[in-house]
């Protein structure tokens, strides 16, 4: 976790990045020969399910919420999950790194201060592109494992995270 000169307790909202252990999601889309030929407002087509990396990037880019799970401090090391909004970049220009705003009142923040390991689980079901049962084998789903990282107010990445979040979740802008 990065720290700044101001105390984390004084900050009302925390931004975290989930770094993926899945190396394909960390790579730039350009590394896979993907060019941004589509305008930002356009929606990329659903990839062929046999292309796991493209399907994973598509699922992360298209979704706007998921379940983040941490090792709970209050539950003495038991797993704990909560629904969170996130964004991995502006529409059509995702980075594969989800950004979150987390309040100090949320258990995830407390958990991450003790153990920064986390998992983000996403399903295709909220997108309306598959059947309504998330366990249907034709619905894409993914769990990304990594570590939560604090972005301080001084970090230049903060602006990128804010643009990503506020573009996908404009209601957040006035609340954080």
Automatic annotation (TrEMBL):
It comes from Apostasia shenzhenica. One of its GO terms (cellular component) is cytoplasm. Coiled coil: none annotated. This is CREG-like beta-barrel domain-containing protein. InterPro entries: CREG_beta-barrel (IPR055343), Split_barrel_FMN-bd (IPR012349). Keywords: Signal. Residues 1-33 form the signal peptide. The keyword Signal applies. Residues 47-173 form the CREG-like beta-barrel domain. Gene3D superfamilies: Electron Transport, Fmn-binding Protein, Chain A.
């Amino acid at each position: 976790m990065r720290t700044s000169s101001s105390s984390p307790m004084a900050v009302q909202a925390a931004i975290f990045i989930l770094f993926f252990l899945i190396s394909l999601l960390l790579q730039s889309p350009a590394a896979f020969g993907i060019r941004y030929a589509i305008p930002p407002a356009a929606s990329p087509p659903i990839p062929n399910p046999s292309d796991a990396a493209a399907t994973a990037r598509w699922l992360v880019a298209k979704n706007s919420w998921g379940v983040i799970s941490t090792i709970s401090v209050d539950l003495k090391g038991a797993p704990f999950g909560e629904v969170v909004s996130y964004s991995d970049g502006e529409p059509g220009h995702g980075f594969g790194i989800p950004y979150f705003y987390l309040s100090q009142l949320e258990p995830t923040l407390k958990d991450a201060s003790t153990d920064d390991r986390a998992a983000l689980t996403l399903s295709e079901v909220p997108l309306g592109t598959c059947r309504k049962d998330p366990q249907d084998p034709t619905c894409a789903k993914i769990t990304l494992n990594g570590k939560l990282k604090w972005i301080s107010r001084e970090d230049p990445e903060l602006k990128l995270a804010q643009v990503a979040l506020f573009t996908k979740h404009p209601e957040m802008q006035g609340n954080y």
